[in-house]
Amino acid sequence: MNHLPLIIKREYLAKVKNKSFILMTFLSPLILVGLLSLVAYLTSVNNEKVRTIAVLDESGFLSETLVSTDQMIYENLSDISLEAAKKLSNKNNSYGLLHVPDLAIEDVSSQIKFYSEESPSLSLISNLESKIEKRLGELKLKKLGVDLSKIKAAKTYIDINQENFEGEKTSKTGSFLKLIFGGAAGYLLFMFIIIYGNLIMRSVIEEKTSRIIEVIISSVKPIKLMLGKIFGTSLAGITQFAIWIILIAVFSVAISFIFGIDFSATPQQEMMANAVSENSANSEIQVIISEFNSLPLLNLVIAFVLFFTGGYLLYSSLYAAIGAAVDNETDTQQFVMPIVMLLVVGFYVGFFTSLEDPHGTISTVFSYIPFTSPIVMLIRIPFGVPIWEQVLSLAILIFTFVITVWIAAKIYRVGILMYGKKPSYKELIKWMKY
Amino acid sequence: MSTLLEATNISKNFGEFQALSDVSIQVPKHSIFGLLGPNGAGKTTLIRIINQITMPDVGHVILDGEPLKPEHVQYIGYLPEERGLYKSMKVGEQALYLAQLKGLSYRQAKKRLNYWFEKFEISHWWDKKIEELSKGMAQKIQFIVTVLHQPKLLIFDEPFSGFDPINANLIKDEILQLRDEGATVIFSTHRMESVEELCDHIALIHQSKKILDGNLIDIKRKHKTNTFEVGLSSSNLRDLESQISERFDTSPAEFKSLEDDLKLNIKLGASDTSNDLLTFINANAYINHFVEVIPNANDIFIQTVKNNSL
Question: Which ranges of A49-171 would DSSP assign to H, the alpha helix?
Answer without folding.
Answer: 82-91, 105-108, 122-143, 148-154
